[in-house]
Every structure is written in structure tokens, then in C-alpha cells.
């Protein structure tokens, strides 16, 4: 039987950590759908057409190299506004969501567009400043040469592009539970998400 947990929200709100934690807790598979857009975005950096890149995307490409750079994040949010790019990635996500044994998908439009029938929907947010600081620490820890100002500007720019695009904009589904992690520890945020999933299992 399938069971889908949809976790949406803006960059660095804590979706990834919560998704991995929920998946580990319940033995569900996890798909970070941002990686799909990042992989397509990376291909466009060498001039490849985004729609062709999305149509040709393979699961293996998601494992190759570091997709979590600021440059690729920007490229991802640019290809993510293209309706044909989004359309090309729908089936892969829906098949993943319906796999036996349960699945957690995190992204921007999982509860609204990809899996409107998900058993659990969570929209994870945090203040822009808190999110930018988290992303800055994450990128710095990997040795990236970025400043706080640069990361804050990147997060703001992507938020606007993600929320204002006409196809599948980032927004909470009407039936999503909102979780603001600004003042929560990782453990506390995860505990709330786990309790929500438990209540629906
Ligand atoms: O979540 P992450 O920061 O890795 O996503 C990178 C970009 O991919 C986002 O800024 C967004 O534009 C896009 N994205 C999307 N829909 C998703 C997941 C990511 O549009 N479901």
C-alpha cells in the first residue's frame, strides 16, 4: 500500500532535514525534488535547452556531482518557471510517490500539484533571515566562498521567483499543516512532523 508525505516550503526552511528524518523514522523512501530542477539547471549552464534536459533526465544524473551549489540553485529556479520543464518531471515524481512502502517528497508544489491526494501535507517555513543564515552556514561548511549578503540575496530572489511564477507556484495546499521552524531546534521540528505523520498512519 502506498502512503505519501508531501513536504513543501521555501529554501532552507528545514524541509530536507525533516523529510530525511520522517523517512528514516517510518522506513519510507525519500525524494528531494529540488534535485530534479537542479540537475536540469546544471545542464543549462553549458547551453543545453532546459526542456530537452528535463525530458532526457535520468535518475543516475541526480547522484552525479554536487548539485547543491548557489550557482546551480539559481539555474534551477530559472528552469523551474518553464511549464514544459515541470511537465516533463511530473511522472517520475508521481511514480515515486506511489511506490509501495511509503514515500516522502519535498519541494515546492508537492501538496498542490504533484500529489494533491497525499495522506500528509506539511508546509515548512522560517523567516528569510533564519533561512539565509542556515544556508550560509551550510555552504560555508562545504568550503564555498560566499558571503551572508550574497546568500540572503539568493534566497530572496528564489523565493520571489518560486512564489510568483504562474505554473505551480510555491504555496501551501489548502489542507497543509504549517510548521514555522524559525525558533525550533531540528529535533523539535522533526518531532512535530513525526507526530503529524503518526496521527495519519
Ligand atoms: O529545494 P531546492 O532549493 O533544492 O530547489 C531548487 C529550486 O528548484 C527551487 O528554487 C525551485 O525553483 C525549484 N523547485 C521547484 N519545485 C520543486 C522543487 C524545487 O520549482 N518541487
Automatic annotation (TrEMBL):
Q: What is its EC number?
A: 2.7.4.25
Q: Where in the cell is it found?
A: Cytoplasm
The protein's enzyme class: transferase
Check the UniProt entry and state the signal peptide residues, or none: none
Q: Say where the protein is mainly found.
A: cytoplasm
Top-level taxon of the source organism:
Bacteria
- Where ATP is bound, by residue? 9-17
Instruction: Cite the SUPFAM superfamilies for this sequence.
Output: P-loop containing nucleoside triphosphate hydrolases
Listed A to Z, the keywords are:
ATP-binding, Cytoplasm, Kinase, Nucleotide-binding, Transferase
Q: Enumerate the InterPro entries for this protein.
A: Cytidylate_kin (IPR003136), Cytidylate_kinase_dom (IPR011994), P-loop_NTPase (IPR027417)
Q: Quote one Gene Ontology molecular function term.
A: dCMP kinase activity
The record lists the catalysed reaction(s) as: CMP + ATP = CDP + ADP; dCMP + ATP = dCDP + ADP
Keyword ATP-binding carried by entry: yes
Q: What's the family?
A: Belongs to the cytidylate kinase family. Type 1 subfamily.
Protein's name according to its UniProt entry? Cytidylate kinase
